[in-house]
Known about the structure:
This protein has 248 residues and is an all-alpha fold. It is built from 13 helices and no strands.
Amino acid sequence: MYKTVQVILYQMNNLSAAFFIFTSVSIATADSGIAKGKAEQKLDRDTIFVAVTQPKNAARYLESGKLKEKQRNLQGALNDYNQAISLDSRYADAYHIRGILKFKTNNLPEAITDFSKAISLNPKNSYAYHDRATAKVRLSDVRGAMMDYDMAISINPKHPLSYNDRAILKVGINDISGALSDFNKAILINSKDSFAYENRANLKRLKLNDKAGAIEDFRQAARLFRDEGSTQKLQKVIKYLQGLGATE
């Protein structure tokens, strides 16, 4: 029986009075789905020049929208994405990227509609499945989210974020062995996945009674967060270590 996301969050928050235990890197960050590649790529001078000066076909509107989004002109970005789709109604990337923007602005039903359209036009887009799953989590559709994470992984079994986020859902439905397996896979694919180490450490600490394993994973997460310059995340992990009677 799948629990609602509200129940999952309530139970996890009861395990930690301070904050949500497991870290999901959602599509609103630069580490997720298409945001890691196409949608949130660094716009270099050539890209900016093309977006601003060249005749506007669908691809140009898409690039212009990305630039406006970088500048936090979200309505202008949405207008450009809409124009890209009006010029090319089968432009899968435009639907996907517009869906990400709608997710960021908390327009979740329309985000899911755009992700679904992107999938219908490009069924091999594992990132669109991942991102639709993340939106479904926000809408408490845990079963639908799990199915989409499964599909994302079946298409792209080398995407650590999908394993990380599916593992979090598995914790919520008390599939602890499945969650551990997914965190292990995320780390196997990317040994520098700081979030996966932190999440696996919390799983070991809270669900598996594996103090030594938790300490080892928290220490690795701390090293990675330090290397990344993520001071706030590093401090959080250090507090976990201190709570276990350990040091970095």
